[in-house]
Amino acid sequence: MPELLLVGNSRWHWAERRAGVLHCWHSDAPVEAPDLSALQLWAAVGAVPPQISLPPARELQLEQIPLREVPPWLGLDRALASWRAWTQQEGPVLVVDAGTCLSFTCVDGSGAFLGGRLSPGLLLQLRSLGRGTAQLPLPAPLAGDQVAREAMELWPQDTETAMLQGCLKAMAAAVMQAVADLPSPGGSADGWTVWLTGGDAPALSELLEPATGSLRQAPNLCLEALAALAFS
Length: 232
What we know:
By secondary structure, the chain is an alpha/beta fold. 31% of the residues lie in helices and 22% in strands.
């Protein structure tokens, strides 16, 4: 049964420990209340349906995340992911979360929030194209492996793959520009580690290495952070 839950904007993210190993999975928002008797800690950045009752005493608040100099408006998911990335090395990190939004969060070597950027994620970009034009399709969500496979086609001939390729390349360019803008001598990313998380991270990583230098993929940073806070 789930012990951890992050309510996202598009998906719900769950985790439980089995033999000391954290197992994570993702789902659409449940229509009926699941068995939450084992739930230890949960956080929400998306809406919780009124028919789902989550225990208020186990809800994580922003001030409980030990990230320094956190502004009150920062999303819980960004705070969780960037704190977890920093704890893995205690050095400056840029966390890129390729989820519903493409978010960038900078944390310095002392574990203090420096700032970030926000832009539409892959599906939001694709849906914007579909809704804002007369002849482009409104794409359905793609599985991560399908996105990664189609992203390798450089000059697609069909419309949907061309849309996917264009949006992914735009996201990759935004990541590379963010790396170039990191506050390091000479404008380089020396000393920084880029952490890539979120559902579209695998496809995006194919377009980034080795251009971003030190890059680490960690698809479950937020859930790992919840586990560290719940079970430490």
